[in-house]
Amino acid sequence: AALGDISFTADLWSSKTRYPYFAVTVHWVARKDPLNLLSLCSGLIAFHRVRGKHSGERLARIALNITDRAKVTGRMGHWTLDNASINDTFMQGLQDGLKMHNISTLFMAQDQRIMCFTHIVNICAGHMTEKASNTPHSDDLDNYRGEVVTSGGGRDVIVLCCNTVCGIRASGQRINHFEDTIKLGNEKKWFKDGDKVVRVHEVQLLHNVRTRWDSVFLIGYRFLELRLPLDHFISVTRELEHLKMTPAEWSRLEDIIFVLGVCASLSYN
């Protein structure tokens, strides 16, 4: 049995088939035998497909139906949610709904809401990316010849990175040739850091995923990992020569990815 109030985490997301689902997880503290120690417990109580309107008021009604079925409405504590605007009305809907349920527990919409830490990190990373790269970049595989020059006259290294990925992935032959470059370069010991021979992992470049906040970090991290074969491949591929990065641009990209990596480590841990 739970000791005290029960807390909740919830999120609304879409499947690959574009069906929206509302997931609700409960968290509580209980005493565990045989030593009667306190233990933090959690469990998924709903994975509910949402049909129709996705307003905060409607999601609140769905949430109350879920907590009623789980028999935990009367012990409702805090809700951890992302910063979507509908969650303001969602929490108010819960407060109003609990009053209609004649539940005596004191539930205040503003006080009972906890902001999702990962989503806050997401917002911070987004602001940093916007400061580092103010040029819109496309995830269209055919759009790798776009403008990469910033208003200050330099080249936007994030756009340059994304355009290079698109340029290589736009052609099956280029993908194969790039993979062969890594394999052959390792065999022939082409790749060196100073005088030291470097063996590069045989991995693929990552493509932009707009729904993932850490997509720029993951793309850039992998791009840096493949710097040596990328320099070689771009140098011998005429269609991509305009995307070859200078040492200063590589250094700038390293700095950006380092900062985004701090956000990623906070989120992943």
UniProtKB/TrEMBL annotation:
It is found in: Nucleus. The keyword Amino-acid biosynthesis does not apply. GO terms for molecular function: zinc ion binding. The keyword RNA-binding does not apply. InterPro entries: RNaseH-like_sf, ZnF_BED_domain_contain. One of its GO terms (cellular component) is nucleus. SUPFAM superfamilies: Ribonuclease H-like (SSF53098). Keywords: Metal-binding, Nucleus, Zinc, Zinc-finger. It comes from the Eukaryota. PANTHER family: ZINC FINGER BED DOMAIN-CONTAINING PROTEIN 39 (PTHR46481:SF10), ZINC FINGER BED DOMAIN-CONTAINING PROTEIN 4 (PTHR46481). This is Uncharacterized protein. It comes from Sphagnurus paluster.
